[in-house]
TrEMBL record:
Family: Belongs to the UPF0065 (bug) family.
Residues spanning the membrane: none
Organism, as annotated: Sphaerotilus montanus
Sorted UniProt keywords: Receptor, Signal
Record protein name field: Tripartite-type tricarboxylate transporter receptor subunit TctC
Domain of life according to the entry: Bacteria
PROSITE patterns per record: TAT (PS51318)
Signal peptide: 1-28
InterPro entries, per database record: BUG (IPR005064), Bug_dom1 (IPR042100), TAT_signal (IPR006311)
Length: 328
C-alpha cells in the first residue's frame, strides 16, 4: 500500500482542525439572528437598571435585534453574575456587571458559586459612578473635617449605613475610616429605600451613596453632601468639594459597570458586541441621558476593559484583606 504524501497528510489534518471551527464561523457571520438578553443584578428603577435599559435600547437599534433587560436582583448582583457565567457562550446572554459582584465578591466570599476571572469575559466598561459622603440634613457636620473630628472623639464606633455588605459603599466607608483614623460600625441594609430612609431620619451618622442617587436627595434638602470621591466636582453638585480638596486624596473609589459575556464566546462575536456597545453608549442621546442620571460615560475597548478588571481585582482584594471582611 503506498504511503500517503506529505501534502495529503497536511490536507487531512487541516480538514480535521477545521471541523469544530466551522459552526463558530457560521455563527459569527449570522450573529445576531434572535433577541439578546442583558441581565442586571438590581431591581427596576435603580442606577444599574437605568444604565441597562438605556444601553439595551440603543444596542438593540444597532444590532437590529431586541435586547431584553432581565432584572435578576439579589445578593449584591451575584445572582445575575452567576446566571450569565453559567449560560451558553453564544453572545446572546450578556451581563451588566459591576465592581461589587465582579471584583469585591471573589475575595470576600469563600463559597462564591461563580469565578468572574475564569467564567466571564469583559466586553466594555460602559459607565462609572462616583460616590458622595452624605450625612442627614440635620447633622451638625458641615465638612469632612467635622465628621472626622467628632468620630475620633466618640467613645464608640461611628454608625455608617451601607447598601449591603461587600458593596463599594461599604468598603469605601472602611477605607475612609482607616485613612482618617477612627472606627466605624457598618449598618447593612438589604434595600436601597431602607438605607435612604435611615440616612434621612438620622438613624446613622452618614453613608457613601452614588452621585446618581444622592444628588436628588441633596438638592431636595434630605441629605447634606460633604465630599465626592470623583477627581473633579460633579456638575450635578458643583458646591460639593472633592476628597482631594478636603485633604484626603486617597479616597478616590468609584463603582464601574461593564458588559460581560460567558467565557468561550467566539472572538468575532465579542469584537462585534464591543463595537456596538461602544457605539451605543457614545451615541449623543444615550450619553446625555446617562450623564443626566449622574454617570461618567466611557465605552472602552476589550483590551482596556481586561486591564481595568485585573487592576480592580488586585485593588479590592487588598481592601478586603485589610478590613478582614468575610461575607460567608
Amino acid at each position: 500500500m503506498p504511503h500517503p504524501s506529505r501534502r495529503h497528510v497536511l490536507a487531512a489534518a487541516s480538514a480535521v482542525l477545521m471541523v469544530p471551527l466551522a459552526p463558530l464561523a457560521v455563527q459569527a457571520q449570522t450573529f445576531p439572528d434572535k433577541p439578546l438578553r442583558l441581565s442586571v443584578g438590581f431591581p427596576p428603577g435603580t442606577g444599574p437598571d437605568v444604565v441597562a435599559r438605556l444601553l439595551a435600547q440603543k444596542l438593540g437599534e444597532l444590532l437590529k435585534q431586541q435586547v431584553v433587560v432581565d432584572n435578576k436582583a439579589g445578593a449584591g448582583g451575584q445572582i445575575a453574575a452567576q446566571a450569565v457565567a453559567k449560560s451558553a457562550p453564544d453572545g446572546y446572554n450578556l451581563l451588566l456587571g459591576e465592581v461589587g459582584s465582579i471584583a469585591i465578591a471573589p475575595p470576600a466570599f469563600s463559597k462564591l458559586p461563580y469565578d468572574p476571572a475564569r467564567e466571564l469575559v469583559g466586553l466594555s466598561e460602559v459607565v462609572r459612578a462616583d460616590f458622595l459622603l452624605v450625612v442627614p440634613a440635620t447633622s451638625p457636620h458641615k465638612t469632612v473635617a467635622d465628621l472626622v473630628k467628632a468620630s475620633k472623639a466618640r467613645s464608640d464606633r461611628t454608625n455608617i449605613a451601607t447598601f449591603g455588605a461587600g458593596t463599594p459603599g461599604h468598603f469605601g466607608a472602611e477605607l475612609f475610616a482607616d485613612a482618617a483614623g477612627f472606627k466605624i460600625e457598618p449598618i447593612h441594609y438589604r434595600a436601597t429605600g431602607d438605607a435612604v430612609t435611615a440616612i434621612v431620619a438620622g438613624d446613622v451618622v452618614g453613608a457613601f451613596v452614588s452621585t446618581a442617587l444622592g444628588a436628588a436627595q441633596v438638592k431636595g434638602g434630605k441629605m447634606r453632601a460633604l465630599a465626592t470621591t470623583a477627581a473633579q466636582r460633579s456638575a450635578l453638585l458643583p458646591d460639593v468639594p472633592t476628597f482631594a480638596e478636603a485633604g484626603m486624596p486617597s479616597i478616590d473609589f468609584s463603582a464601574w459597570f461593564a458588559v460581560f459575556a460567558p467565557a468561550g464566546t467566539p472572538a468575532a462575536v465579542l469584537d462585534q458586541l464591543n463595537r456596538q456597545i461602544v457605539a451605543a453608549v457614545q451615541a449623543p442621546e444615550t450619553r446625555a441621558k446617562l450623564q443626566e442620571a449622574g454617570f461618567s460615560v466611557l465605552g472602552t475597548s476589550r483590551a482596556d476593559t481586561e486591564r481595568m478588571l485585573k487592576a480592580e481585582a488586585t485593588r479590592w482584594a487588598a481592601a478586603v484583606k485589610a478590613t478582614g471582611f468575610k461575607g460567608d
